[in-house]
Amino acid sequence: MSILIHTVSIRTDEKSFNWIEDGYVIINEGVFKKIADGKPSEEELTEADEVINGCGKWVCPGLVNTHGHAGMSLLRGYSDDLPLDQWLKEKMWPFEGKLDLEATKAARGLAMVEMIRSGTTTFLEMYHLFMHEFAQDITDAGMRATLMRSMIGLCSKEEQKEKLLEAVEFAKTWHKAADSRIQTMLAPHAPYTCPPEFIEMIVEEAIKLDLPIHMHLAETRKEVREHIQQYHHHPLEHLEKLGFLSEARWLFAHGVHLNEEHIDLLAEYKAGISHNPISNLKLGSGVAPIAEMLQKGVKIGLGTDSVASNNTLDMIEEMRMAAFIHKGIAEDPILIPAEVAIKMATKNGAELLEHEKTGEIKTGYKADFMIIDSHAAHMQPASNRDSHIVYAAKSSDVTDVYVEGLPLMRNKELLTLDEEKIKFEANEHYQRVRSYI
Amino acid sequence: MSILIHTVSIRTDEKSFNWIEDGYVIINEGVFKKIADGKPSEEELTEADEVINGCGKWVCPGLVNTHGHAGMSLLRGYSDDLPLDQWLKEKMWPFEGKLDLEATKAARGLAMVEMIRSGTTTFLEMYHLFMHEFAQDITDAGMRATLMRSMIGLCSKEEQKEKLLEAVEFAKTWHKAADSRIQTMLAPHAPYTCPPEFIEMIVEEAIKLDLPIHMHLAETRKEVREHIQQYHHHPLEHLEKLGFLSEARWLFAHGVHLNEEHIDLLAEYKAGISHNPISNLKLGSGVAPIAEMLQKGVKIGLGTDSVASNNTLDMIEEMRMAAFIHKGIAEDPILIPAEVAIKMATKNGAELLEHEKTGEIKTGYKADFMIIDSHAAHMQPASNRDSHIVYAAKSSDVTDVYVEGLPLMRNKELLTLDEEKIKFEANEHYQRVRSYI
């Protein structure tokens, strides 16, 4: 199966992050076979199984969401603007405690619809419920994902072992499944929710399986303070002193409360960070020192976290926030320019989630991309495309999304998910779960 | 002319900021005649000149943008991510210096399209070019606006007088014009660009005309530092010591670098603030102490500033940022809850721009409103509408916009502006002006 899309602008990394003004792409068996300036030849047009006139739209790399909990998607708007403890204990946990398979499935269907509609091709899911079922649904929907069964260790040794067994079994079953569209990780929830011995068991399994580890890190000031009280060290120093940082590949979520030495540790051990600026603001967690991390060569991806703390899964808004917030806080308008925000949301994310040959539009790379229609008033005049993508675009400008050459959305119509049914069911299950509380 | 819109949720201020779940509104001669729960009577349906089935959409107050320069709208994406001085001197000013009537008109047409599409009914324009022509275009487009000829006083006394004469003549001509849809103000650009004697002349005219004064204030740290070097006082103290604060009604834009005493001054003199959080972040200006201002009773509206520093005129995004940023900076998730962000973007803005009986959906108020379609995936499940408007909605959810009972957009079609022509001309003039530099 080959597709040729012509008369498009292309954000390609063929020639070190440049735009082709008016060109075409040829996709063969899910892979970019050719990315070129100008018009395709008669032969190329004839050879392609499908020829699409892009009408001047923009072909851009699909967006990669490096931290989330799609299983929580029924919680959008269920509770906002409360103190963190009250929000968690009185609102989030009681609702999550009632999530059954049907409700979680509905939540994740909704999440996939929203992600595809806003140009996301690849995402990370860290959650404890019904991961096998979600992996199957992702396979069917055609998305790309890195999945993990999250583990909280504040329980008995037996329960810890049970969780780890479940996590390992899930990771083995689904690693490189769905033609490698699914990758897996192991996921101890956080240093403050996992005793050292439990983390050690997880690290050992990660080494055995050659899998990376995803973990929440230093999200709030209170969490860090209490961790220091309990373990005498900042959570990152704690992991280092236990010898864990050197033993595995780490992707941390948040990393808000880190000082220079901590950033040096991240750089030294090549640990990545999922920067989740909107969630960090909305929950009052703070602002992660991303400019400093970039300066020291730490690899940063962007994540939305769940809709309970965002409240969308819109990576365009996440890019925009990442580009805005650090300029404002440091009072320095040159920090995180548009192209850096795009790189974090595409190439970096793909590398951190370990999806090889994705995240860029390049010959030989997997054809994960979105198509942006730049005709809306808020995208005029046609000046700088990178600027428009980060500072002006909206998810409503995304018209098409492909993963590995297969269309998941065409002209704003979803092809692999029954959107109306999903929205209906999300509301049904939201009302049902609420009624249990 | 009367319109009845039924089967809608209504964000009404009839009963202290509540939602009517399923109700109807009757608009007569541009004014809300009735806002009611349930279904209209047969008599009401028969009496209305037009009956619209709202299909469960949300009728919400139109958004009010309290600071902007629509005349700069061709500058979207022209330059970003540069140091402020270089951005202004090498990019903004040379381009603005070449703006002629046609280019400015195209810019403002584009701005009006974008504002209507994102639910804005009322806005402020502070600019020095072609204000009469814009006032006429706004009259024709049916929007509501508060307009002023901005004045920079770094010039000869003769030029100052000329500018003031022009500003006063404009203010007189258009005040309460277009059935009071247009209000005017006087606008000394900023304390650092207007010598005290010039501000004094402007204040005197404002008193004579009973008009408020709009002025940039304490936007950047550098500006405040240099002002103190020159005048020995912070710009706000400077205005107070000169006796100006007590003499007129003030609406300041930005107010980023203010301490507690300055906030006390704002409260004492009932001066308002246009909070422009996105522009303040993008230009690296900082974060205004809005939570502190609200606590002391300072009236806050929200503004986008121009697309050169935003890069949109989308008040939904501005509400969202206002709700996010202060939580994050203060590490306090209860600051600026959704309903406060909405109030700033509607009622407060209307009061600050002195458009009486607008900004709320209330019997006897002018029928300025937007209709939101909540069917998109990112608005599910149907939980909390205020939360969804601030934390999840996008301008693409706005389907209809009315000002004083007249539709400016219906089912996403603009009725008073030729959108395609405007977008075409914006691009033409952008290319033309660029070629002069």
Automatic annotation (TrEMBL), chains A, B:
Keywords attached to this Swiss-Prot or TrEMBL record, sorted alphabetically, are: Hydrolase, Metal-binding, Zinc
Query: How are cofactors bound according to the entry's free-text note?
Result: Binds 1 zinc ion per subunit.
Indicate which residues the UniProt annotation says bind Zn(2+). Answer: H67, H69, H216, D305
> Amidohydrolase-related domain location, by residue?
58-405
Q: Where does substrate bind?
A: E96, R149, H189, E219, D305
Cofactor(s) named in the record: Zn(2+)
The reaction(s) catalysed by this protein are:
S-methyl-5'-thioadenosine + H2O + H(+) = S-methyl-5'-thioinosine + NH4(+); S-adenosyl-L-homocysteine + H2O + H(+) = S-inosyl-L-homocysteine + NH4(+)
**MF (Gene Ontology):** 5'-methylthioadenosine deaminase activity; metal ion binding; S-adenosylhomocysteine deaminase activity
Q: Which domain of life is it from?
A: Bacteria
**Pfam families under this entry?**
Amidohydro_1
Q: Per its database record, what is this protein's job? A: Catalyzes the deamination of 5-methylthioadenosine and S-adenosyl-L-homocysteine into 5-methylthioinosine and S-inosyl-L-homocysteine, respectively. Is also able to deaminate adenosine.
The family assignment reads: Belongs to the metallo-dependent hydrolases superfamily. MTA/SAH deaminase family.
What PANTHER family does the record tag this protein with? AMIDOHYDROLASE-RELATED DOMAIN-CONTAINING PROTEIN, AMINOHYDROLASE SSNA-RELATED
Give the protein name, as stated in the record: 5-methylthioadenosine/S-adenosylhomocysteine deaminase
Q: Which organism is it from?
A: Alkalihalophilus marmarensis DSM 21297
What gene is this protein a product of?
Answer: mtaD
